[in-house]
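So, who can interpret the following?
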Amino acid sequence: MHCENAPCEVVCPVNATVHNAEGLNEMVYNRCVGTRYCSNNCPYKVRHFNFLHYTQGMGDTSSPLGLMMNPNVTVRYRGVMEKCTYCVQRINAGRTEAKKQFVDGQRDSDLVRDGEVVTACAQACPTQAIIFGNLNDRGAAVTKLAASPENYGLLDELQTKPRTTYLPRYVNKAT
């Protein structure tokens, strides 16, 4: 859950929860001291406290546990708050690839096209129920779904303006 008016950002005493220009609520893990104020102020309860020490005894990439050390993902230390990042490393990789192709003359724009960035949750979903994209791109699939009259955000009455919205599930009970 990424809110435009995020209540978790205003209560962080060390400014570890910040809002970037793209509308994502980012966590600066090396600033986080684990006060849990953001979790207490989040109406969606999407944040959790990291009790585990992922980096202890790691470093050997031949073991399955060593493969957790992914260089594309920030390794969080024990005692910080965690939340979904919308796979910002995949967004940055897609943006970098688009710029490289633009410089090489392989494309006419350095903008990321619809479908070039796929988050891990969308990639893992077998029913393709999760769509990720740029709401500013009028031709994107996510923009067409967001324009649907059935589109809704959770707890809209709080005016947090969540970036994650939903469509209803229809069940045919006639059969």
